[in-house]
Amino acid sequence: MLDPNGPPGDKRSPVTAPTLVRAVKGMNDVLPADIGRWHRVEAAFRTAMERLGYREVRTPYLEPTPLFVRAIGEATDVVEKEMYSFTHHDEPLTLRPEGTAGAARAYVEHGVHNQEPVTRWYYLGPMFRGERPAKGRYRQFSQVGAECFGDAGPGCDAEMINGLVEFLVEIGIPEPDVFINSIGSAATRAKYKEALVMMLEPVKETLSADSQRRLSTNPLRILDSKHPADRAAVENAPAMTDFLTDEDRAHWDGLRRHLDALGTPYTVDPKLVRGLDYYGRTLFEIKGAYDKLGAGSTLVGGGRYDGMVAQLGGPEVPAIGFAAGLERLLIASDLTVPSNVVDVLIAPIGERAVEAALVLGRDVRRAGVRCDVDSRKTSIKAQLRRANSLGARFAVILGDRELDEGIVELKDLEAHSQEKIARADLPRHIAARVAVPHVAAASPTPPAPASPAGDLT
Ligand code: HAM
Prior knowledge:
It contains 16 helices and 16 strands. By secondary structure, it is α+β, with helices and mostly antiparallel strands.
């Protein structure tokens, strides 16, 4: 084995303290002190989506690289420079930068269109993009998202946007701003691109280097460039909605009418285009909490991608979806979650009480109560301090005298009171006084199915 300090006795490699191994830049730990808010937002998202008839789908974190190149588009920032791609045993693989391509792949691969006319899926999980890290922008980040396959109508779009706004308000983002646009079907975009390129070609030299390149690869992206010279050049660009075909226009009008009927306020942003190539017709973004996130930071992005399923080898099935960055939602949200780790701390005092405390702890947990048994045999004072830091409502003191008398001393740390109660009564007594979230009705536990021998190695 290699010795990191070099061969023994080698004077050229002095023994140094091991260097700290840190997390990869842009990838963050979420420690238990913060996890309560994550759980709350994730649970609210599941509830909101299930209320809308969506079911959870889980797709792999790793997908074949060609999936993303084909679905997201070669001339996008994500594919050009942000993907974590590598080859493993000759297979090109990529850590998923987003969830839509994987969901559409799974939809096609499992022939889901044969099983139901409309499919509503939601997902939560980590995504990976090699972007420059900043507040709200990470290299591993989590998205909550949803995809609806099989409904081409604008009612589906409006319902999704409305449901999202209700979810955002529920998690403490009070006034989210919805921005919408329609980039029409492929025919509309082809006509629009032609007009845009014609307008920008004469001023090409004034554009940023990125936009000069995009003029031939992906001219629509110039519309949302942050570069001042690009912004000036597109200031008077025609609105894409002026180029819509009759069918596109009917869809666009329908979307706005439905949003009005649902009471969802929105702003039409004719320059809204998105960084992924698969979109057509409806595009939307939701922003908010500008004081916490800054003006440029988008909470939610989504839109229609009616061509993707066919492009991945499936039938012509329309689709729409969105994704929100969970870290951004958590920065934006006013939600606070009390961190109360257990309800009870059982403190055995002295060696003899430890075993009785372990048994008592087991019985208290069986009654559905969260309980920590601190068997380090420290002082009562230290135990009470620990009970406080765990947010425990009760501390149970169990010393020699209590053991002999078959009782415990129960301290109510909120009411600052104490009482002696019979040890056997403690589980029931405490369960009645703390909110036990869910205790299964007393039914015999079914025996675990016998696992076939040798199936796990
Ligand atoms: P997106 O706009 O690339 O769309 O990402 C959606 C959201 O994910 C963003 O609005 C942001 O909140 C969050 N996000 C993106 N990149 C990062 C990052 N580096 N760090 C932190 N958060 C980030 C999509 O991903 C599409 N798949 C959305 C969609 C679903 N369209 C149709 N269906």
